[in-house]
TrEMBL record:
<dbReference type="Pfam" id="PF11807">
    <property type="entry name" value="UstYa"/>
</dbReference>
<dbReference type="GO" id="GO:0043386">
    <property type="term" value="P:mycotoxin biosynthetic process"/>
</dbReference>
<protein>
    <recommendedName>
        <fullName>Tat pathway signal sequence</fullName>
    </recommendedName>
</protein>
<keyword id="KW-0812">Transmembrane</keyword>
<comment type="similarity">
    <text>Belongs to the ustYa family.</text>
</comment>
<keyword id="KW-1133">Transmembrane helix</keyword>
<keyword id="KW-0472">Membrane</keyword>
<dbReference type="InterPro" id="IPR021765">
    <property type="entry name" value="UstYa-like"/>
</dbReference>
<feature type="transmembrane region" description="Helical">
    <location>
        <begin position="46"/>
        <end position="69"/>
    </location>
</feature>
Amino acid sequence: MAFQFLPAWWFGYIPVTSNKVEAEDQSEDQSLVGRVYVQRRKSRSFVVLSLINLVLFLASAAMLVRILAKPERKPLNAELRAASSYSPIFDMLDLEPTCKKINGTIKPMGSLSIGRHFPSPMTDAIWEEDIELLRPIPITREQVIKLGKNPETVAKLEDEVWGLGDDAYVASLDIFHTLHCLNTLRKAVYAPYYNLTIADETKKHLPAVVHLNHCVDILFQHISCSNNANLVTRHWTKGQEYPVPDLSITAHCINFEKLTKWNKEASIDLNKYIKVMKKPAGVKEEPAEI
C-alpha cells in the first residue's frame, strides 16, 4: 500500500525498542519495591506507637488502682473534730480517742480515780496541781479568730517579755476549768474539812456562793451539751428486787493523762505570768461581764 512507505512518526507512533521496554519494567519494579518498603515502614511505626500507647495505658491504670486502693489519710483527731467545735489542740497533739469502760460501781471497787479519794493533803495537791490548774498557753491571732473571739481584746504575750514572737496570745484549756468546777463542788461536799460556808439562799450574794452556783451551771451545761447518748442496761441482781442499772458503760474517751502532760509542757511560766501580766494602759477592753 502507498501508506507503508510513510515514516512512522507521521501517524504519531514511535517504535518501542527492547532496551526501553526493559528500562520501564525495571522502573516499575523499583517503584513497587519502594511502595512495599514505605508500607512496611508505616506498619512498623504503627506497631511501635501502639505498644507505647499500651504501656502508657497500663501505667495509668496501675496508678489509678493504687490511688483508689490507698486509704485516705485522715487528719489528726478526725473523730473528735467531727463532733467538736474548733480547737487548735487537734492539730498539735494526738489525743488517742478510744472506747473505755467507766467504773460506775456504787461501792469503791477496783482501781479508783482521784474522784473517789477523800480529802487529804495528798488528794488536794493532785487536784490543785494536775487537774484544776488553768495553765496559760500561747495561741496565734488566727487561732483566736477561729475560736470566734476578738483578738483586739485577748491578752497578748509581748515578745520583749516572753520571747514568743509578735503573734502570741493567752488561752487555756477549757477542760481544766470544768474540772476546777468539779473540784469546787467536791470541796462544798466536804465543807467542814475546808472550813467553807454551807451555801443556802440567804448567802446567795456572797462571792463564794456565786462562784459555787456558777460551777454547778457550768457542769450542767457541759454535761447536757455533750454527745453522750450511751445507754445504761438494767440487770437482775442478787439481793435486789428490782432491776439494777449497770453504770459501768463504755464511753468514748481521750487520753487525759497525755493531754495533762502536754498542757504542762506547752504552758508558759505561771509564776512569771502572775507577776508580769498586769493590764497596760490604753488597751481595748470587753464589757465587765463577758
